[in-house]
Automatic annotation (TrEMBL):
The lineage of its organism: Eukaryota, Fungi, Dikarya, Ascomycota, Pezizomycotina. It comes from the Eukaryota. One of its GO terms (molecular function) is transmembrane transporter activity. Keywords: Membrane, Transmembrane, Transmembrane helix, Transport. It is found in: Membrane. This is Amino acid permease. Residues 1-23 are annotated as: Disordered. Its main location: membrane. It is a multi-pass membrane protein. The chain crosses the membrane at residues 46-65, 77-101, 122-151, 171-190, 202-221, 245-269, 281-304, 336-362, 383-405, 411-433, 445-468, 480-502. One of its GO terms (biological process) is amino acid transport.
Length: 512
């Protein structure tokens, strides 16, 4: 059945674009699905959305505590470069497979198609749950991180006693998180047709904000500047772990900021030529993000205050303090932080959109409890509204963990990174074990380079799972415990229970 918005999109498209849309819908039909969402994104627009999902200056700002405590400047700069190079391999590997199977089911559908018939049910089920949980928890981490960051930004203004003007009590942080979550869902659901414009605005806004921060903190540098030796070679571990492992723990900073790389695959059914556009967008975006991340972090490290003071901040958000120290003014610091706050909200909207598509795609194959409800598309809004609301409710329920532990953000970001990275690795591993026969038929086949990228991607996934279940500092207390493993286990238990209760008898997998 043709979706009414497909007609509108086709009538507004140029002849070449209309051909792309028709070809993409034919390819989707050959993969077993009926087009239900309008294809309203061009190559640039899908690249911009991929950039927004990462929102590198914001993602790096909210998690800067981890490399500071893990190893200082060396962890911040070289950890970012190392992880970015690895993620380019992940993006290239996923791009090869996506050029063959461009559906909203993403890595879940790809795993099904690439796996041997004997193992495809359990392999696709496992990958699908990892992907869906990753989308939900990384969206939760973004909105929760924004709440914590916003409190720290407001507190660049201080009372006469030298304390922040906003107490940042647990309930206050939760209410801010709740408001941000509701706002992101409202914009994503009600303004879907304008989201490509918002994504386009975001990329220009980002670079304007980064340039403003670079110029101001380096030009003013009220407390002086560090030398290049400090910025590029100084290692200072404050975590309590041995130096090498401490450095590795600090990589959560870079891994969190790049974990959204494969989330853009869930938008394949809203892109005009997904088989070529999405793979290119993933790889190009990681390269752009690498440069943007260095542009943002290098100036901050050059004006870095004492690391011991930054890791001792109760807010866990050192960036507002760094910028305020550099410019010497609360008002000036807050002005420079505004671009990051706005970008954080846009990132939340983008992640909300991608997460809803991932749930919807998984539900339409019957793999989520209550699938008949979650797989419905709201034709007036042109979005899978029910799936979006399910994602929102789960995020809010998980957000309550913050009342029990202020380390909740660590758990959310850790689980998001673990599950998404593992989900990305499953189809890559299956493809590699099959001799990469299928990807040779795609338009993004990379030959021996692709094989090398596959090996790096799988190795990274094997490292990430135990690494980001570790607490960031030792000795461990209840307040500093990393609950990522607990949340990960809870979702795993739900997945296994649903498979035993329903999936092993009724789950038929994607149409083939």
């Amino acid at each position: 059945m043709e979706h009414k918005n497909d007609k509108v999109t086709a009538s507004m498209a140029r002849p070449g674009e209309e051909t792309d849309i028709g070809s993409a819908d034919e390819l989707l039909g050959s993969l077993g699905y009926t087009p239900e969402l309008s294809r309203n994104r061009s190559t640039l627009q899908v690249a911009f959305m991929s950039f927004v999902l990462a929102s590198i200056p914001y993602g790096l700002a909210t998690t800067l505590y981890y490399p500071l405590v893990g190893g200082g400047p060396v962890d911040i700069i070289w950890g970012w470069v190392a992880v970015s190079l690895i993620i380019i391999c992940v993006a290239a590997s996923l791009g090869e497979i996506t050029s063959v199977y461009p559906t909203a089911g993403g890595v879940y559908y790809q795993t099904w198609m690439l796996s041997p018939p004997k193992w495809r049910h359990i392999a696709a089920w496992t990958c699908g749950w990892l992907y869906v949980v990753g989308n939900i928890t990384i969206t939760l981490a973004v909105n929760f991180g924004t709440a914590l960051f916003l409190v720290a930004c407001v507190n660049v203004f201080e009372t006469a006693e030298g304390e922040g003007v906003l107490a940042g009590e647990t309930y206050e942080v939760f209410l801010i998180f709740l408001g941000l979550t509701l706002l992101c869902n409202a914009v994503s659901s009600l303004g879907n047709r304008w989201l490509p414009i918002l994504d386009t605005f975001a990329i220009f806004w980002t670079f304007a904000g980064v340039i403003a921060i670079m110029v101001c903190v380096l030009a003013i540098a009220k407390n002086g500047r560090r030398d290049a030796s400090f910025v590029f070679t100084h290692f200072e571990a404050s975590s309590g772990w041995t130096p090498g492992w401490s450095f590795m723990i600090g990589l959560l900073h870079a891994a969190y900021a790049t974990s959204s790389t494969g989330m853009i695959i869930s938008m394949c059914e809203e892109v005009r030529a997904p088989a070529t556009q999405v793979p290119k967008a993933m790889v190009i975006t990681v390269c752009i993000n690498t440069v943007a991340g260095l542009m943002f972090m290098l100036p901050l490290v050059f004006v870095l205050p004492e690391i011991s003071d930054l890791v001792a901040l109760s807010s866990g958000q050192p960036v507002p303090t760094i910028i305020k120290s550099a410019v010497g003014s609360s008002g000036g610091a807050f002005g420079l932080l505004i671009p990051l706050i706005v970008l954080a909200m846009i990132c939340g909207i983008g992640c909300t959109t991608a997460a809803s598509r991932a749930i919807w795609a998984f539900a339409r194959d019957g793999a989520v409890p209550g699938s008949k409800l979650w797989r419905k598309v709201n034709t007036k809004l042109d979005v899978p509204l029910n799936a979006m609301m399910l994602s929102m409710v789960v995020q809010i329920i998980l957000g309550v963990i913050y009342f029990g532990s202020t380390a909740a953000f660590n758990a959310f970001s850790g689980v998001g990174v673990i599950t998404l990275t593992a989900a990305y690795a499953v189809p890559i591993a299956v493809s590699l074990l099959d001799g990469r026969k299928t990807v040779k038929t795609g338009s993004f086949y990379l030959g021996k380079i692709g094989t090398f990228a596959n090996i790096i991607s799988i190795g990274w996934s094997l490292l990430v799972i135990p690494l980001f279940c570790m607490p960031s500092v030792i000795p461990v207390e209840a307040a500093t415990m990393n609950y990522a493993s607990v949340v990960f286990f809870a979702f795993t238990a739900i997945s296994i229970a649903w498979y035993v209760a329903w999936g092993r008898k009724h789950y038929a997998g994607p149409p083939t």
